[in-house]
Amino acid sequence: MIKSASRYIDGYDISFKKTAWDSIFVGLDSEIYQVAANNISYTKERASKYLYSVPIAKNPLVLVTKKDSKIKSLDDIGGKKTQDDTGTSTAKFVDDWNKKHSDSPSTIDYSGEDVAKRLLDLDSGEFDYLIFDKISVNTIIKQKALDLKVIDLQTDDNPNNYIIFSSDSGKLQGEFNKAVKKLYDNGTLEKLSNKYLGGSYLPDKQAIEESK
């Protein structure tokens, strides 16, 4: 996505470095990185510190369980255990659910594992359910042939993914947003979605047009 957008951005030499999830924001804060990408969703806390791009994909949260699990919906996670990482929007999602269901909260095991390992652990029965983004979940389940079921969640949460920029990278953010709009309009964004995400996960055009 960033590579495709960079074709429409002049004056920047963009290089890539793979890093752990919790190092992304440390890197932005310390000016090691100017741009970050990792299925990043919108939160008010992040928006107060970093600059968001226009949405690059529609990627709603889903509930994942074993196929024989008694968990059929979000209403059934009380008293059950999940895995997550610190500082994620999905951990906050469960925390917010627990606040509304304090009589029977769900337990979060902060494992620090990536989502592929978490899905493998879920498949082997180490915990009861996982909440994560739909694109990653469907891709990994297919690749690993896992015996898991995916349940769509009806939530009011923003379902989009974004690229984020350090607070002093406003010019680059603006150029990137223009490039994404071009990729959307010329059909490249949909081609990238189908090729790398396994389907058309385009954000709503209105969301791209209205974002600054």
UniProtKB/TrEMBL annotation:
Keyword Signal included in the entry's annotation: yes
InterPro entries for this protein: Solute-binding_3/MltF_N
Domain Solute-binding protein family 3/N-terminal intervals: 1-200
Keyword Translocase: no
Pfam families assigned to the protein according to its UniProt record, in alphabetical order: SBP_bac_3
UniProt KW keywords: Signal
Protein origin, superkingdom: Bacteria
Name recorded for this polypeptide: ABC transporter, substrate-binding protein, family 3
Source organism: Streptococcus infantarius subsp. infantarius ATCC BAA-102
